[in-house]
């Protein structure tokens, strides 16, 4: 998905994309690279951009704008970037956004609304000092995009002696022009830009006196950082999308060894990871844009996350694009290097990864990102109803019987009240749930959190029951759904086999028909919770004469049935959660077949889809920022505090990106913008696994000698050893990449 989430934004995105292709095709841009480097726009390009008001969407209507927010402007920036629209668009809208945040800057806003170009000049070497009632500025700026040729320049200089304060002011063309032979206190020095489609320059100030009328007061640093970073991130998402589309188009048709290279699994996996990266970049940028209306702490978290996650992603995406294009992608004539260059330039002007990691780490010590998307007054009647039930629940004793390990708890008076009210799984249809949509679920979750109550865990039952609700008969639903919600039944899943792990169609467990039912023989493995389960869902082959997908049947098996043997498998953590299950002449009556014989594959897809939803949105349990914070607070980390803070920043970014993916998927569904093929489940599952893997490794890097201490004295290493459950659960990363490559990217078999 692009940054657009609703119908209006999608229409805008399509319109802008078509506009960019028409006004500034890449072939035309290539002809004018020297002009763009000099800050000169070819005749008609900037005028054409300004005519529909694309330069001023975010500005107040009184200054020629449309009062659109950061989220809408980001959609436009993304689409123009995907077309590699040249010139000072990004620098101009960034500059005007900063002016919009100032007080009493109406005249300057009117200039931007009228179509002047702009740039933003900053840098740690710029210093402002008081000079009587005014200011003088000295120092050399960082390289600034669009500075050469800019008609209005916004400058930020640090106030000497006050590290928290900044002086903002603006310059016009006359301020930057140096007459021949004249001595000036400001000088602009053009630089050779990596991004060939834009100008680049530094500004050098030598005790430059700032006129009081040029000072921009009231600019909130958090607002400035959010707009600057989010707009750059929006450009980066456009680059990610172009690189993905270009790569996929090429590998579908490029042949080697008599077949499309897109049919090779190694190529498919790399392309699928490019899609995952593009989706993560979009989600994080979208999350940053929505922070516009949130408090300062939220803006700072979102901005730092975008800087750390999205800007480097565009560089990686471009490199992977060139790699999969092969030699042709490494030529001057191919456009890939132009996008690569822009990605490098964007990341450079926003700031380095270490700085972003440090900033996010420090901010994560002070606040947590708010991913709520409903207001306190949303759905008041539902809040009152749910609140009343939860108040009753809170007054009851917490008498659930805990299970060992991963299995859910059993029974309890609280759970009975929740089940009766439809609050165990409110998203399920009535009478089992409330048929709650995303907004209703969010309200319910807030009411639970407000009272400090934990949501009911169903374990594998959360994957099984939706399958029975959709595909089971009335007797099966009556027997199993309510009992599971009450905690009277724990489920396990008997799918994987020693010879057919993720390849379910290759399973060999067989069921033969007898009077009144079926006799099942076979072996299953990697069965979580089987040691405590009361019932199992089981796939078995009932027909060997049809294609292997078509000969499977979905059974419900009591785990205490004669012939069922559970043997625990000890994991590397030292505990038993996996099992192998042997089925020896196990009789299953016809009433425990779900749907019809031969429907097993179709039904199993529903169960697996629910498993991937659960695994993709699972709590970030490995390498979590909570564990890093604990090390920081105790000082029990190796290296410097700065090392640990940067690890906290990187791990927080991984957590926030997972949460942003989940939330954007929810909002897309609320706007009827679903993928239609379940691809988001696989994408979220892959990224969740990768994120927790990388976070766990980063956590281990600051443990030092403590990493040699095992559980229970040292929970950190135990956390690392438990990681494979996330990597395997719901299907391995590699299997999910196969799904993404073939079902989403439509790469050839």
Would you mind describing this structure in some detail?
There is one protein chain. With 749 residues, the chain is an alpha+beta fold. It folds into five domains: 7-214, Butyryl-CoA Dehydrogenase, subunit A, domain 2; 221-350, Up-down Bundle (Butyryl-CoA Dehydrogenase, subunit A, domain 3); 371-457, no CATH class; 485-614, Butyryl-CoA Dehydrogenase, subunit A, domain 2 (Beta Barrel), CATH 2.40.110; 615-732. 47% of the residues lie in helices and 14% in strands. The chain contains 25 helices and 17 strands. The strands form four sheets. Strands 1, 2, 3, 4, 5, 6, 7 and 8 form an eight-stranded mixed beta sheet that branches. It has a four-stranded antiparallel beta sheet with strand order 12-13-17-16, with no helix packed on it. β5 (152-159) and β6 (166-171) form a beta hairpin. The longest helix has 33 residues, at 221-253.
Structural class of the helix and strand makeup?
alpha+beta
- Write down the Rg: 29 Å
Count of helical stretches: 25
How many strands in all? 17
What's the story with the biggest beta sheet?
8 strands, mixed
CATH topology of the largest domain: Butyryl-CoA Dehydrogenase, subunit A, domain 2
CATH class of the largest domain: Mainly Beta
Spell out the CATH superfamily of the largest domain.
Butyryl-CoA Dehydrogenase, subunit A, domain 2
Architecture of the largest domain, CATH level 2?
A: Beta Barrel
Q: How far apart are the first and last residues' alpha carbons, in Å? A: 24 Å
Tell me the overall shape: elongated
Instruction: Let me know the average pLDDT.
Output: 91
């Amino acid at each position: 998905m692009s940054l657009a989430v609703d119908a209006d934004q999608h229409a805008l995105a399509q319109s802008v994309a078509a506009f960019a292709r028409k006004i500034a095709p890449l072939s035309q841009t290539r002809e004018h690279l020297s002009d763009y480097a000099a800050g000169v726009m070819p005749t008609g390009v900037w005028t054409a951009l300004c005519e529909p008001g694309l330069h001023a969407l975010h500005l107040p209507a009184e200054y020629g704008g449309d009062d659109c927010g950061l989220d809408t402007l980001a959609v436009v920036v993304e689409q123009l970037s995907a077309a590699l629209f040249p010139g000072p668009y990004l620098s101009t809208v960034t500059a005007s956004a900063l002016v919009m945040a100032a007080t009493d800057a109406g005249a300057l806003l009117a200039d931007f609304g009228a179509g002047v170009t702009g740039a933003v000049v900053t840098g740690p070497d710029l210093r402002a000092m008081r000079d009587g009632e005014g200011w003088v500025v000295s120092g050399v700026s960082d390289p600034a995009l669009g500075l050469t040729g800019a008609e209005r320049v916004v400058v930020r200089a640090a106030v000497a002696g006050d590290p928290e304060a900044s002086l903002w002011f603006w310059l016009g063309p006359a301020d930057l022009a140096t007459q021949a032979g004249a001595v000036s206190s400001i000088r602009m020095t053009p630089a050779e830009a990596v991004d060939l489609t834009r100008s680049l320059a530094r500004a050098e100030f030598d005790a430059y006196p700032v006129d009081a009328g040029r000072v921009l007061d009231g600019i909130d640093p958090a607002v400035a950082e959010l707009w600057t970073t989010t707009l750059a991130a929006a450009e980066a998402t456009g680059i990610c999308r172009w690189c993905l589309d270009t790569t996929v188009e090429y590998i579908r048709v490029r042949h080697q060894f008599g077949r499309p290279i897109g049919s090779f699994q190694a190529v498919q996996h790399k392309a699928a990871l490019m899609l995952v990266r593009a989706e993560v970049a979009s989600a994080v940028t979208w999350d940053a844009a929505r922070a516009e209306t949130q408090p300062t702490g939220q803006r700072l978290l979102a901005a730092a996350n975008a800087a750390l996650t999205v800007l480097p992603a565009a560089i990686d995406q471009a490199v992977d694009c060139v790699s999969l294009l092969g030699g042709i992608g490494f030529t001057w004539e191919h456009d890939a290097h132009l996008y690569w260059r822009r990605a490098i330039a964007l990341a450079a002007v926003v700031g380095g990864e270490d700085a972003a990691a440090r900033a996010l780490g420090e901010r994560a010590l002070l606040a947590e990102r708010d991913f709520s998307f409903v207001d306190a007054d949303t759905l008041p009647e539902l809040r009152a109803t749910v609140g009343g039930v939860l108040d009753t629940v809170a007054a009851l004793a917490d008498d659930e019987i805990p299970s060992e390990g991963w299995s859910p708890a059993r029974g309890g008076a609280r759970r009975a009240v929740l089940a009766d009210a439809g609050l165990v799984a409110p998203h399920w249809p009535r009478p089992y749930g409330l048929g709650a949509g995303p907004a209703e679920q969010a309200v319910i979750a807030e009411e639970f959190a407000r009272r400090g109550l934990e949501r009911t865990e169903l374990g594998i039952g959360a994957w099984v029951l939706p399958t029975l609700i959709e595909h089971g008969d009335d007797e099966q639903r009556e027997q199993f759904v309510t009992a599971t919600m009450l905690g009277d039944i724990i489920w396990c899943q008997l799918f994987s086999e020693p010879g057919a792990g993720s390849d379910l169609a290759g399973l060999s467990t067989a069921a033969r028909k007898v009077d009144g039912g079926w006799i099942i023989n076979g072996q299953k493995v990697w069965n979580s919770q089987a040691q405590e389960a009361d019932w199992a869902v089981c796939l078995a082959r009932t027909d060997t004469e049809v294609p292997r997908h078509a000969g499977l049947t979905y059974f419900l098996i009591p785990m205490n049935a004669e012939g069922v043997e559970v043997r625990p498998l000890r994991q590397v953590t030292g505990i038993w959660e996996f099992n192998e299950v042997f089925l020896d002449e196990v009789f299953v009556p016809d009433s425990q077949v779900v749907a019809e014989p031969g429907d097993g594959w179709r039904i199993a897809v529903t169960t697996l889809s629910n498993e991937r939803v659960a695994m993709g949105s699972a709590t970030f349990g490995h390498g979590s920022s909570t564990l890093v914070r604990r090390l920081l607070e105790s000082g029990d980390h190796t290296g410097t505090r700065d090392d640990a803070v940067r690890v906290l920043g990187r791990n927080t970014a991984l957590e926030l990106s997972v949460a942003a993916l989940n939330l954007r998927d929810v909002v897309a569904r609320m706007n009827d913008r679903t993928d239609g093929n379940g691809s988001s489940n696989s994408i979220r599952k892959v990224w969740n696994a990768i994120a927790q893997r990388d976070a766990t490794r980063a956590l281990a890097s600051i443990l030092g000698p403590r990493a040699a201490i095992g559980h229970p004295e040292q929970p950190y290493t135990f956390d690392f050893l438990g990681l494979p459950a996330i990597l395997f659960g719901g299907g391995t990363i590699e299997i999910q990449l196969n799904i993404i490559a073939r079902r989403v990217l439509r790469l050839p078999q």
